[in-house]
Amino acid sequence: MKEEPAIVENVKEDVTSVVRIRNLYKSFGDRKVLSGVDLDLKEGENLVILGKSGTGKSVLIKCVVGLLKPDSGEINVLGYDVPSLSLKELNKLRLEVGFSFQGSALYDSMSVRENLEFPLKRNLGIYERSKLNKLVKKSLEDVGLESAINMLPAELSGGMKKRVGIARTLILNPKIMLYDEPTAGLDPETAAEINELILSVREKYHTASIIITHDLSCARQVSDRIVALFDGINKLEGTFDELKQQNAEELQSFFNY
């Protein structure tokens, strides 16, 4: 009998929420990282989670895809109760949730083409050369890197690696994108290009996205809504302009009041 992921009973109460988090806690030993986080991601929304390094932003999205198990709380992603899923069920869910890692996570020994073909072969069982070529070509076109198809990661700039990493995620056509510090380590011009790419991805793939960042320029450029995460909880929430006008102490270092 086919094993199906556990469905959260109340998912139909808010059909526009693709991610719903309630009262989420996570600690590592004596260090409390998340202390009761509540969060909603709506269909088609770009949600930025803003906070300083070490505030639990990356831990939060790793809990969303089951890379980390929370100590307690509810995580509902696309109707699935993530903490209760088996590894097989998690792998199925992860086909619908793209994770763009901070370091791009490319395989150094593989060309760009091979990096993009890898998830198609491993996850979808696609080996037909014509189909692989078509999907790889489209993904690279969508991130503006068709010319890099035969290059190795060592030959790519930081911005190019980010684009290839995003292309490899998009090739599985996810419903949700998770970006972990997408502009980290990039110069301002390249960072602005990656921000534009994030907006373009939503337009072309109709994704909802969570963008983890401490980069205010990124938050301003890509966000529909911002959640400010401090001391392990979501203390402030609103649009960029709304948060800027709040004059909150926690945000002073970001907005330079």
What does the model show?
This protein has 257 residues and is of the alpha/beta class. The protein has a single domain, classed as Rossmann fold (3-Layer(aba) Sandwich). Helix content is 36%, strand content 25%. The chain contains nine helices and ten strands. It has helices at residues 57-64, 87-94, 112-124, 129-142, 158-170, 188-205, 216-222, 240-246, 252-255; strands spanning 17-28, 31-42, 46-50, 72-77, 80-81, 97-100, 176-180, 208-213, 225-230, 233-238. Strands 6-7-8-3-9-10 form a six-stranded mixed beta sheet, with helices on both faces. Strands 2-1-4-5 form a four-stranded antiparallel beta sheet, covered by helices on one side. Helix 3 (112-124) runs parallel beside helix 5 and helix 6 (188-205) runs parallel beside helix 7. The longest helix is centred in the last third of the chain and has 18 residues, at 188-205. The protein is globular, with a radius of gyration of 18 Å.
